[in-house]
Amino acid sequence: MFRIESKCNKLLSAIVFFISSCLVVFLLYFTIPKSIRITGTSFNLFATLILLTLLFVYFSARGFLFRYLFLVVLFLPSAITAYLGFKYNVPLSNDFTTDVLMTNRQEVSAFISYQPVLFLGIFFLFTLALAILFGKFKIDLKFSSKKAEFAANILFFVILIVCFRVNYPTRIYDIAIRRFYSSAMYLSNFLPKVEKLENMNEPSYLDKPLPPGGLLFFHIGESVRADHAPMNGYERNTMPMLMKEFKNGNLFSFPNTISFYKSTRFSILGMITPATIADPVIRSSTFIPHLKKNGVEMAAFFSKSDDFKKKPRYFALGINNYYNSFELAHSVLPQVKTFLSAGKSDKSRFALYQGEGSHVPYNSYDTGKFSIFMPVNFQSNADSTTTNAYDNTIACTDDFIGNIIENMRGQNAVYIYASDHGEIFGDDGYWGRYAKVTPKTNKALRTVLFFIWVSDRFKRENPDKFQALKSNAKNLTVVSHDYLYHTILGFYNIRNKSYSSELDLFSKDAKPFAGPMPEELADITFYGRLKFE
Fold first, then answer.
1. Helix (H, G, I), strand (E, B), or coil: what is residue 22?
2. What pLDDT digit, counting tens, does each position of 87-136 carry?
3. Which has fewest Cβ within 10 Å: 77, 86, 417, 448?
């Protein structure tokens, strides 16, 4: 159908073709992350590699543009996923690519060292040399007729479709850019809807007057596992200040708390809206418009964050009074203390805080004062020194919260802390949030630190709510992020159509979590499931 013409003799062309084909097969095989090399697949992996080799040769023969385009589209993304696979045992998935597209420079810096740079550099030079090799020998396809060329193009197009669309566990297209493309398309459709949360309102009213001087501080935590807190049985005293409050009976911990999801942006949606783990559909706004409508004074505080004006925090939409810091968490304490002491004695107030917390790299929240557990390694490696760095961030969080609580003691106040997700530290032999999902790793990711601190004045002025909270902390064996929306409304006596007393931890009607457990959710992704109505 076609013949190969070359400036070199036929024997040399055959040798070049054979060596290049072997290099392509070798390269493609060893760039497949070991975490997704699954045996017993419905489609032979080596057959796919051979097809891809043919595709590479074909596109190389079609000219300069096709040759380098094929390298960029397949080989370079393969290098990135290969490094993640071999170094961190991270399979490429929709969840992973979605988070990559939404991440920040702090998180990316945790994975930057000379090793990935060296790896990608060698990979790039190797593939570039391969492309130049084909160009040097000028392997050109000459067809006997236009019909033959058309048939060949159709054939290779079909092969391309088969390689990139066949449905089996070791999909080649998972290594290419298709994952990033599909995730980008999902986010481009999803994020504009998130920005409309403030307008998805419903009527609300006060069941009773606002609590006089009622102050609720809601701390959206970051990456803290429930089992790394001493009040939940952890052998290290990572939270000495809060442990005192726990022993004094002012702090109530819920050690079996399931997060809405395993990534920040999706988990927060579960915290601030009535959407539930069992039914992840957003049908109404966050609690913020309801607080605003009923006269609650609000403020929001952020640390180590992007510019609020350039990248609005969707969970704070509707709060006009905010402070945004690019420094460590403690940098916002003066502004927080000003807000806590500024309101009238009978004014109900609400404060929201979100920062980097225990996010990777684990030195992003450590001021040096909290280097308690040594030695440390700030990256997400399978090393006990990584756990030391992680626990130091929790000690830093403890000091931060302790400072705020000291300014709330004399008020009718409540401090609610809920982490967005956990981390994987050796569970099932895996490390890092994007490691292979198993029942154990998902439990580590989805069982988060959640506690409620109350002041002595709150105990006196709200005896029913205090006794309900105390009873619920003792008797509710499992809770989740589902409870936060209703508990916050319950504190202010606000009611709407979405409110449920069965999910209000200040209500005697609260019931244990009845949704799916993390082990059952191991194979479930929110990619495409989390919807707006």
1. helix
2. 656 666 666 667 666 666 555 655 566 666 776 676 667 666 666 665 55
3. 86
202: which 2 tokens? Answer: 């419903």
Q: Bigger pLDDT: 126 or 475?
A: 475
CA atoms lying within 13 Å on the CB side of residue 126:
17
Which residue, chain included where needed, has tokens 């004399």? 410
192 contacts: CB under 8 Å, gap ≥ 6: none
The pLDDT assigned to 307 comes to 46
Regarding predicted confidence, which is higher, 316 or 418? 418
Cis peptide before 334 (omega within 30 of 0): no
Position 147 pLDDT exceeds 80: no
- Beta strand ranges found along 319-412 (DSSP E): 322-324, 349-354
| Interatomic CA distance for residues 446 and 440, integer angstroms | 10
| Beta strands in 194-333, from DSSP E residues, in sequence order | 204-206, 215-221, 251-253, 257-258, 281-282, 297-302, 322-324
What are the counts of helices (DSSP H) followed by strands (DSSP E) for the chain?
18, 17
Distance, CA of 414 to CA of 489 (rounded, Å):
13
Q: What is the DSSP string of 255-272?
A: SSEE-S-SSHHHHHHHHH
Show the tokens assigned to 130. Answer: 């391969």
d(CA 419, CA 257): 10
Residue-wise pLDDT tens digits, 353-411? 998 888 877 776 655 778 888 887 766 556 778 888 889 999 999 999 999 999 999 99
Sign of CA dihedral 193, 196, 202, 206: positive
Q: Give the three-class secondary structure for 141.
A: strand
Phi–psi pair at 220, nearest 5 degrees: -85, 105
Q: Long-range contacts for 16-19 (Cβ within 8 Å, ≥24 apart)?
A: 16/133, 16/137, 16/139, 17/57, 17/139
Residue 436 DSSP symbol: P
Q: Residue 216 pairs with which residues in a beta bridge?
A: 350, 414
The amino acid that residue 384 corresponds to is: S
What is the rounded CA–CA span in Å between residue 75 and residue 57? 14
Cβ atoms < 10 Å from Cβ of 262? 27
Per the model's pLDDT, the better-predicted residue between 402 and 65 turns out to be 402
Q: Which residues on neighbouring strands pair with residue 220, listed in sequence order?
A: 354, 418
Residues contacting 216, CB < 8 A, separation 6+: 349, 350, 351, 413, 414, 415, 416, 488, 491, 492
Contact assessment for residue 390 and residue 378, using Cβ atoms and an 8 Å cutoff: no
Q: Which structure tokens are listed for 238?
A: 């990572």
**What is the Cα–Cα distance from 340 to 508, expressed in whole angstroms?**
29
Percentage of the chain beyond pLDDT 70 is: 61
Q: Where are the alpha helices (DSSP H) in 72-166?
A: 76-88, 94-101, 105-109, 114-137, 146-165
Q: pTM here?
A: 0.79
Alpha carbon distance 118, 76 (integer Å) = 14
